[in-house]
Write the structure tokens for this entry.
Amino acid sequence: MEENSLYSEGVSPDRPRRKRHKKVARTRKTDILGDLTSKFKNLKYAKSSYITISVVVALIVAVTVAVVVSRPKVYAVVMDGEAVGYVEDVDLVDQIVDRLVEEESFRVGAEVQVSTDMSFEVAKRDKELELSDPDELGQTIKDKIAFQAMSYVICVDGKDVVALSSEEEARGTLSDLRENYVKNIIEPGHATCDEVLIKEKIDIVQKEVSTAMFRTRVEAEQILMRGTDKILSYTVQRGDSLWAIANANNLTVDDLKRANPTVSGDLIHEGDSLNLVVPDPYVTLTSRETLTYTQSIPFSVEVTYDSSMWPWQETVTQEGKSGQKEIVEQVVRENGKEVSRTRVSETILSYPVAKKIVRGSKEVPGLGSGTLIWPCQGSITSYYGWRWGAFHRGIDIGASSGTTIKAADAGVVTFAGYSGGYGNLVKVDHGGMVTWYAHMSKFAVKTGDKVAQGDVIGYVGMTGSATGPHLHFEVHVDGVAKNPLDFYK
Ligand SMILES: [Zn+2]
């Protein structure tokens, strides 16, 4: 017995007593010994003291031995050289381990063995020593224990990447990888995938590995394709930008775009889910696909000239029609990213039909005198310039319906017809300068007519956007509407 043990204290009462134990079992034993000591003291006064002392000593030894033998041993549970708990019953630990083995076997789908070095060591029954709580011990063992099992490891360029429980699962992972890759890059109906290859050297090796390497088929595929089966995503909030999200997650915008190949440009929408794990694939899938699509062939415009028509007159003698061609291309991609595109063939399905136009080429005489006359009797009701938030490109001359409108200068009528807000509109080209007369109730000329200064060209009305009868009058110089009043000075 060692001096710090409970029993040496009991049989050697002169030694300093250590502080009392809280444990119920120990307190009880101290009392037994106390009783024996008092018996011993009383017997000192008996006649045949030597015999009595011998008997008592023998009794004490016997009781002590009995007590020591009756107390169960305490064992330290040692995992990889470290005591993780104390038990009296090693069966408890065996049960915990059995349960964990069963659990892990079920999880990985293979028979597993404990790879952690586990043993029991008899521990000193120190008063500091406390037996482990079975639940806590179970958790501690679960956290520390490691298993290994026979597996089928997918090796990429000789490096063990992921383990599967069967060869079938391992081969399945590789075929899933190819299939899903094709599904993601091929536009159905437009392309056929001719070949998918994995650039790296892939082996399936049967070996015993830590069950931490075991993955399901789906997880294994993720790891090969992205470098991890970790998923971390972010839902775009109102006002977010790629830059702000990247910054908040210690990524660059390029990283974020690599993690989210479907994001085009910098465009993200509230509610979009962004992947925050930047892919770092173990494998490079190379695909060759044949892409077939049709493209329209634009038609050409053929213009012929007719000197009997004014330049603003044109006739379409044949409508144009686009043609169609079928294009076949071979596209090579690496992990989805296009690396080359070769045109295999181009077949014309239908030829385009040229649009044919006859345009007038009759010479327009330079007619304008350069001085304008007032086009209509009446007073100005609205001036050129900004008016109610819009730019008024001319002046309004208020006059009653039917008042005659005169050509402000000699020229050629280049337009006489209805034109949106202008209503019935006449344009007279004076050679560089063009005057416009809008909202007419009736025309007195037609396109192509030659007019002299002061000739009646139409009548005041309120066609188009007009709230009352008036002439809206514009003066254009080189295509720009100028203030008409500038020409009456
Ligand atoms: Zn106006």
Observations:
- DSSP finds nine helices and 29 strands in the chain.
- The radius of gyration is 51 Å.
- The first helix runs from residue 6 to 11.
